[in-house]
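Shipment paperwork, digital attachment
Item: protein structure file
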Amino acid sequence: LWRFGYSARLLKTNHFRTAASNTSFPAVWMLLAQYSGRIPGLFVVVKKNRFFTMPETVEDKANLELYSPPPEVRGMTLLNREAFKRTIVVPVLKVKKEIISGLLKSLKHVVLQRPGLKRVVEDPEDEDSRLLILDPHKILEFSLGEPEKEVLKQLSVCSEVSKYNLELTYENFKSEEILRAVLPEGQEVTSGFSRVGHIAHLNLRDHQLPYRYLIGQVIIDKNPGITCAVNKTSIIDSTYRNFEMEVLAGESNLVTKVKENSIAYELDFSKVYWNPRLSTEHGRIVELLKPGDVLFDVFAGVGPFAIPAARKKCHVFANDLNPESYSWLLHNCKLNKVDSKVKVFNMDGRDFLLGPVREELSKQLPLLKEEQKTSFHIVMNLPALAIEFLDAFRHLLDGEPCSTAALPTVHCYSFSKHDDPTKDIQERAEASLGTSLDGRCSTYLVRNVAPNKEMLCISFQVPAEVLYKRPCPSEGKEQA
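Attachment content:
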């Protein structure tokens, strides 16, 4: 990103948003998609432009007018592909077919470059010739410029430009062009979605709902491999972390297979939680682990933290209250051949902390020697509620810690709508733990969920005075 000369401050300006939307800056958009949620300055851009799983470049106004579907499709709610046929007049050169290849290279800056449209077509009047279609925006008034005429003169080609009726069909329009033509003028158009295997997951706004079946079918038509489009119809259930959805188009099979960080998962998207935008975060946490470490995954879902940790030769205890998630977690452990390395539980998160987590920590921590470097990590990825579970760590263990270095590290996720989300999540964590975390925690901005709503992860070692019923002797001497 810095190769383009933009500073973090400039990312927030309208100048950057204008520059980034130009077709000459695809790399900028790729970086924004990859690093959204990791650089705070990027959030303004992402919130304004939305995150598209498969982004499409918006062409200039002239292109939109020339390549727009016919106006009769405005207001269409059930897709009629035949209604999108349209004929436009474009400039062409008549060229002998044996020199067409060389001429394409010489005139590539003025030849039609629109994806899906042929640049060379048959000449209906001469089987030995071909018609080379030129870009109507670069060949003004159907007349070539002097540089192009000179090229043709050297190749002994007539420079006369003719008019050709080019038929456009539904297949020639991009999804965003189709939806812009169908929806009422001035209303927001989206062709964006989250891809979960063969499923396109949309989150449509109220004004788009009358067109939802058409939108779903267009998404399927324009994205190879997508065979089902669904729209979320309710907020995420905070108990089981799933939501109701409506199948808009395609097959109703919601059992799908996804791949994340080179690991395959299978799941029923209608019954469990899966978010492809969290792949970077899953990888970040697993990267912190070393072989031999112990991971407790309190809200494990179908295993995006637990399974890669097990493959890294960590000892994993994974839990989820949702019986469907529990079943798919077991299935995915077997699928990835780590079922012998993961102990799976179907419990409430608090019961998991007070039961298996307490039991394992009580057993392992006293046995650790100073030279041993085993680390204990506890992942709590339930952003709507996880912070409320932190009070379970209060006096979870008896006795005294043998080493403060061995205290378990918690990675707790939360949403925040606060003006200062970092301060907000720390204060709420401190309230649950009953102690200050100043200088003892780090906060990571995971992603922007909605306007003015961020997802964060706060990481900290559980303070000894919180975890144990009796304070650590060394801390007592320091306080004295």
